[in-house]
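Folding Task

Wanted — backbone structure
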Amino acid sequence: MHMLFITATRLGDAVISTGILAELLRRHPGVRVTIACGPVPAELFSHVPGLERILVMEKHQYDLHWLKLWKECVRQHWDITVDLRGSAITLFLRSGRRLILRGGRRPGPRIEHLAALLGQTPPPLPTLWCSQAERAQAQALIPPGQAVIALGPTANWSGKIWPIERHIELWQSISQAHPQARPAIFYGPGTQEAELAHPLLDALPAALDMGGRFTLTQTAALLAQCALYIGNDSGLMHMAAAAGAPTLGLFGPSRASEYAPAGPQAHWVAAPGPEGEAPIAGLSVETVARAALALLHEKAP
């Protein structure tokens, strides 16, 4: 069997989509998979079971990236085609079963919209695939049993970013209650991400620097080793939840009702005010610290 899986250009959306990908792999053992996605999340799929290839979709003027993708796929007969981008491309491919998520924003959790394509209730949780070598590397950097608490101070939009000074105050509250804990700062590649993260690294000199130099799947393995992840609504937040780390997402003007983290230990807090309009600066250190310490208490043996 051959399956074409067309997913997102943004990291967070791509992570959310891994739940139904994992479910399809479970339903169709041995299926050969081609992933089509944007360049940012492409690494995320490098260890998917049955992977044949990853088609990286660079956006082109006049939507010519869709024509390019069609040319890459038209010679193959597909047993299953999944299009989470709501395009018409799979209608012009030889395909057995077609699953197409229609475009447009709609209320309710994104993860449930995807699961509805499969008639799956409750929705399958996102899944991240890492190699044995990546898991071993993560355990060497963050040994099992070490109380490492991850902080994710970055996001792709300034409106989502909880002020850095709040992260610093938060760590002071956590370290008072858990003096043995050590912070780890996670952020993505590139100058902009580094500039957002470095004030926190400078303020917390004992912190592990876990940004910039790791692949997405290496990062997923590292996140799985953390006792807790606290961070802005971002792709890293979704990765932490999918990796199984206890996760506390911080929401301001983005909508937790649509994009709350999904995972076995995923939680969130939001700034007061109308959803979609609340400034994240309204989210107090006390609120976040209370939620974070409760999660650490739950995890404690």
In short: Residues 2-116 form a domain with the Rossmann fold fold (CATH 3.40.50.2000). The radius of gyration is 20 Å.
